[in-house]
């Protein structure tokens, strides 16, 4: 098999290549060498911003957040936007990154026995680390809390008597499974942007209470969850949640409804992703470049490199200056 040289740039510090679908696709078709002189840069915005500007190879941007890439700086991109740009962009939301989560969501309607409700000892959960852009998370929490207790076990608005925090996926899924409903509000209201929150809710066999992507009904079956975007207000949505909670037949019908409108949706998206990646790597290397490498885009690229270098220089000097001050204080007080 052909060897391809890649590097992950701008990702979280604990990145394991095997957790990236792009890497696993490449491993199926090539010998993959991760190195510091790559031909292909798989880049993002979770780590050091714009570090990919220091690499001359083919740049493939992966946007796991509500961030649209700059195609003057990268050759290809994968993200949430519903845009068409020749062969340079693929719509593939971050929520689809982990296949095992998706499998749980795909199977969520199976094995729902008539006595399933006995497993649901809590009304609803609320697990977040921060508020949403316009305060929708706290508002729905307050509205539903007037009806019944909403168990908040994230770091935001935590109301656990013991201070318990569901701070990893297994803890979160176990807690979700005890609840009838899961509040799955995105951090922002943005067309076509959705994350793992609704996937986790389905996977735990709960009914998601969703807010964020106005096109979410194009992907998920609207009879399987409560989409607050379909109501004139959050107050109206909260009233409907109470109605479903009081109607066991309606609630069980929602649980027994498949999550995805198209049962083959996940497989189709992964096929699109593999085709997208192979199109890049199967081209003649020089012909696979797409970003302009001259004039204004190159000036911008070089300007960004300059800003980063100056910032790092200033940080290093500030650290040295602070160290000298601390040593001076130490010499005065600890003679």
Number of strands: 11
**Tally of individual domains:** 2
Tell me the overall shape. Answer: globular
CATH H-tier superfamily of the largest domain: Glycosyl transferase family 10, N-terminal domain
CATH architecture of the largest domain: 3-Layer(aba) Sandwich
How is the CATH topology of the largest domain named?
A: Rossmann fold
Count of DSSP helices? Answer: 9
Q: Which structural class do you get from the secondary structure elements?
A: alpha/beta
Over all CA atoms, what is the radius of gyration? 24 Å
Main pleated-sheet profile: 6 strands, parallel
Strand composition percent: 5-15%
In whole angstroms, the N-to-C terminal distance is 66 Å
CATH class of the largest domain: Alpha Beta
SSE diagram, text form:
Elements: E1 3-9, H1 21-29, E2 31-34, E3 40-43, E4 58-62, E5 76-79, E6 89-91, H2 99-106, E7 122-126, H3 136-145, E8 150-152, H4 169-177, E9 179-185, H5 196-203, E10 207-211, E11 226-227, H6 234-245, H7 248-255, H8 265-281, H9 295-333
Helix pairs in contact: 2-5, 3-6
């Amino acid at each position: 098999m052909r060897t391809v040289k890649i590097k992950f740039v701008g990702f979280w510090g604990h990145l394991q290549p095997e957790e990236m679908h792009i890497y696993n696709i490449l491993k199926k078709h090539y010998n993959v060498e991760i190195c510091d002189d790559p031909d292909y840069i798989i880049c993002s915005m979770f780590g050091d911003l714009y570090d990919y500007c220091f690499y001359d190879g083919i740049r493939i941007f992966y946007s796991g957040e509500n961030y649209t890439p700059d195609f003057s700086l990268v050759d290809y991109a994968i993200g949430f936007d519903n845009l068409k740009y020749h062969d340079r962009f693929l719509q593939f939301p971050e929520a689809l990154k982990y296949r095992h989560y998706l499998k749980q969501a795909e199977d969520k309607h199976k094995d729902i026995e008539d006595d399933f409700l006995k497993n649901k000892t809590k009304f609803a959960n609320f697990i977040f680390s921060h508020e949403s852009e316009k305060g929708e998370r706290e508002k729905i929490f307050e509205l539903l809390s007037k009806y019944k207790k909403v168990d908040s076990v994230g770091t935001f608005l935590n109301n656990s008597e013991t201070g318990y925090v569901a701070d990893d996926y297994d803890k979160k899924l176990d807690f979700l499974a005890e609840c009838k409903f899961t509040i799955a509000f995105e951090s922002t209201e943005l067309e076509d942007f959705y994350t793992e929150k609704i996937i986790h809710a389905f996977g735990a066999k709960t009914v998601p209470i969703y807010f964020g992507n106005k096109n979410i009904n194009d992907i998920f079956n609207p009879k399987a969850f409560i989409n607050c975007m379909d109501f004139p207000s959050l107050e109206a949505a909260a009233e409907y949640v109470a109605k479903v909670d009081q109607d066991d037949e309606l609630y069980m019908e929602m649980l027994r409804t498949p999550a995805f409108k198209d049962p083959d949706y996940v497989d189709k998206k992964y096929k699109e992703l593999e085709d997208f990646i192979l199109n890049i790597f199967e081209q003649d290397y020089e012909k696979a470049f797409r970003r302009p490498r001259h004039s204004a885009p190159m000036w911008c690229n070089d300007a960004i490199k300059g800003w980063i270098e100056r910032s790092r220089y200033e940080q290093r000097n500030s650290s040295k200056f602070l160290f000298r001050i601390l040593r001076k204080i130490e010499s005065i007080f600890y003679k």
